[in-house]
Each structure stands twice: as structure tokens, then as C-alpha cells.
């Protein structure tokens, strides 16, 4: 599980997120969870990175789950590339459903 915190959209923050996702991708887990409970809003850059990794991971049969997504990510979503879970329990249940 990765835990996002409020940060600016600097190249360092984006690089750290990308490196953390790359490490998580090599973990061998069936799903990667990103906890956004400490985040009010995700920048367009961060959302684009998450969508990119979600699509790539889906091809690898790995699920990227966004836990406690901020309202800005939930509102008006027509794109279903990101699996959103309102809580960690919901994330667990959604991942179980995907496996069966």
C-alpha cells in the first residue's frame, strides 16, 4: 500500500510517486492500493500517472485500487480506468470480487 500525502506538483513529488509505483509493480502482489485519505485533491499530473499505471497493471493482471479517493476524483467520473474504494474494507471486498 502506498500512502499519498498533500504535496505540490513538483517534479520531485512526481518522481517519488513514479518510483514508489515502480517498486510496487515489482512486489508480486495481485493488487496495489493507494491510500488517499490524507489528500484533499489530486493534481492532473498525479491522476494521469495513476491512470497510466492502472492501464499498464491491468495488462499484467494486477489491480490498482485508489482507497479513500478525494471528492475531486469521484465527481463526474466517466473514466473507469481507476478502481475507487471508499474504505480499505471496500478495497478488500472489491479485490476479492475481481478474483472470483
Tell me the layout of helices and strands:
Elements: E1 2-5, H1 11-25, E2 31-38, H2 44-59, E3 63-67, H3 71-74, E4 83-85, H4 88-99
Helix pairs in contact: 1-2
Protein name: STAS domain-containing protein
Organism: Hymenobacter taeanensis
Order of helices and strands: EHEHEHEH
Q: What topology, given as strand order, has the largest sheet? A: 1-2-3-4
Overall tally of structural domains: 1
Instruction: Write the CATH fold name.
Output: Transcription Regulator spoIIAA
Low-pLDDT windows of residues? none
The best one-word shape is globular
What's the CATH class label? Alpha Beta
Mind telling me which CATH architecture this is? Answer: 2-Layer Sandwich
Mean pLDDT: 84
Protein name: STAS domain-containing protein
Question: What tags apply to this protein structure?
Answer:
single chain; 100 residues; alpha/beta; Transcription Regulator spoIIAA; 4-stranded parallel sheet; 4 helices; STAS_dom_sf; STAS domain-containing protein
